[in-house]
Structure formats: structure tokens, C-alpha cells
Amino acid sequence: MFVPGAELSRRFYDEAVQPVLSATFPGVPHSAALLGRGSEVLGFDDEMSTDHDWKPRALIFLAEEDERRLGAEVRAALQRDLPATSAGRPTGHAVHTVRGYLRQQLELDIDHDIEPRDWLTLPEHGLRAFTSGVVFHDEVDLQTARDRLAHYPHDVWLYLLIAGWWRVHPEMNLVGRAGAAGDELGSSLIGSRLVGDLMRLAFLMERQYAPYSKWFGTAFSRLECGSELTPVLWNVGRAATWPDREAALMTAYERLTAMHNALGLTAPVTTEVVQLWDRPFKVAWAGIPDLLLPLIQDPAVVSIAQRWPVGPVDQFRELIWAPQNRHLLLRLFD
Asked: Among residues 120, 148, 176, which one ends one of the domains?
């Protein structure tokens, strides 16, 4: 019978790791958690997940001074005394400080202020990997760091909403334009990209980070809006002709507009059907970015937002995959 990796890791900590630490290093505070990459961290693992890199494991966090003083000894004791297997699976462990772990995973110094340009160069999948998972024990403020990174600051969030809406609006008419030119495949590709952008808007509006592509749809289905929006967005993907695709996108846009109204950020808006020149293409528009922009108060975010709102850097996936490359992206916001 399949047992989720988070539960196996909790048992491994309770039954093996914690007793070793208590017996060998009494009085030394630590935190322990299951964090980082892996479907079990996100809570999406199943039987198929067990075929590689899936095992009971625990990350141990020491205070900075204790890690300098005792880190090598703690690693040696865990290597020596922990069982090689648990529940029939190989086990894993590692010792960090909270600050060191975040430097390693996100190239972020948690002991300093987190500026808007930091937030815009932190990949969402990395933020989700750190703020998901399970904390088993906490004496060195691991959860405090997780709470600090749990959501985008309000003004950064407003900016990302603006950017999200602007990613959708200019592209909607292209679904019809490509289709009318006889390119239904190209129209379908544009429609699919718009579906992804609308899904990202939904994640933003529900204040959740989106995971990377493998679990993007799964996580979307578990949003509060997931059950309502999924069939609407499916209609975009299944549409065989551009008019049907356009109609499905307009329905999806109206649903997202209703979600915006439910946030109470601005006065309620209604969608307006805009027809471009004398072309037979229609798009829905609600003018939401113009209403959100005046709400931003942080001068640093205002400065960024007054440029063309390109949004976060997750679109540069290959560049940001390695945390040590984040310094290159920071220059985009100078």
C-alpha cells in the first residue's frame, strides 16, 4: 500500500533522526523538514514517483554558530548512526543553516531586506519548493523564513497582476488572426499559451506560487477556482476552429474578471467586447491594469511598473534554473 513520501519522512525523523540528535547533541537546537525538489514535497507523489530519488529523508537545520562549531560532528553522527533504510527504502539526510540553504536554493540572503527586484527574480517553482513540504521540528526559525517568503508583498503582487493581464490582452486577437489566415495549428498554439497565462493569473489571484510544468495542471486543479475554470479552459484546447477557440477564451476571461472583482481591490469591472478595426475578431477587455497601477505605493515597484510590465522571470526558465544565475537577472530591474 502506497504511503506518501511526506509521511515516511516524518516517521524517519521521529523514529531515527530525532533520537540520534537528542542523544548525541543534547541541548543543541535544530529544525527538521522535508523541503526542496520532489513530488513528495508538493504532496503530488504516487506509486510512480517511487522509481527514482524518492525516499524517507530529512533536512536538518542548525543555528549559524552551532553549524560552524558542530556541523561536521552532526553530519558524522548522522552518517554513522542513522539506518541506511527505512520502510524498505534508502534514507537521506543533509545538514544546513536556514541562511545557507536559501543561498544555495534561491541565491537569497534571508538576513537582508528582500527588495522588489529580488522578488521578481525568484523563480516561482523555487519559492513553492521552499514554502511547501513539511516542517517536523523547529527551534531555529525555519518557519519564520518560510512565512516571510509565503506570498509576494502586496505591491509586488499588484504589479504581477498587471503584468499577467497584459500578457493576455494583446494576444487574444491573434487566435482569430492566425485561424482566419488558414493556420488553425498556429491559432491553437496561441490559444494554449493564453490558457497557461490565464492559469498563472488564477494562481496569482489565489496567492499561490505555481510549480514547474510537470505539476502545473495538478496544482491548478486544486485551486479554489480549479473545478470551475478547468472545463472552460479545456474548451479552448479542444476547439477545432478559431471562432470556437475565441469564444471559449472570452468565457475564460470573463471568469477571471469575476475573480478579480471578488478580490475587492478596485471598483467592480465588467468586460467589454472589443472588435479590432473591421476585422471579424473579438476580444474581451476590462481595463484592470489601469485600475491596479495607482494602487501601488512602493516607489521601487512603481518605477518597474511604469516600464512595460514584463512580469516575473519564470519565462526565462533555462537561465534561472541554476540559482547562481539570478544575479544576471537582477540587472533587468536596475
From this structure: 148
At 65-93, the pLDDT tens digits run: 999 999 999 999 999 999 999 988 999 99
Does residue 133 sit within a domain?
Answer: yes
CATH of residue 158? 1.20.120
Q: Are 309 and 159 in contact (CB under 8 A)?
A: yes
Q: How confident is the model at residue 149 (pLDDT cuts 50, 70, 90)?
A: very high
Tell me the pLDDT tens digit for each residue of 9-52.
999 999 999 999 999 999 999 999 999 989 999 999 889 988 88
Q: What secondary structure, in 3-state letters, does the chain show?
A: CCCCHHHHHHHHHHHHHHHHHHHHCCCCCEEEEECCCCHHHHCCCCHHHHHCCCCCEEEEEECHHHHHHHHHHHHHHHHHHCCCEECCEECEEEEECHHHHHHHHHCCCCCCCCCHHHHCCCCHHHHHHHHCCEEEEECCCHHHHHHHCCCCCHHHHHHHHHHHHHHHHHHHHHHHHHHHCCCHHHHHHHHHHHHHHHHHHHHHHCCCCCCCHHHHHHHHHCCCCHHHHHHHHHHHHHCCCHHHHHHHHHHHHHHHHHHHHHHCCCCCCCCEEEECCCCCCEEEECCHHHHHHHHCCCHHHHHHHCCCCCCCCCCCHHHHCCHHHHHHHHHHHC
Torsion on CA atoms 83, 134, 144, 92, rounded to nearest 10: 30
Domain count, the chain: 2
Which domain range does residue 209 map to? 154-297
Cell of 14: 521521529
Question: At residue 8, what is the residue type?
Answer: L
Tell me, yes or no, whether 179 and 277 share the same domain. Answer: yes
| 3-class DSSP assignment, residue 235 | helix
**Residue 138 domain flag:** yes
pTM of the full predicted structure?
Answer: 0.90
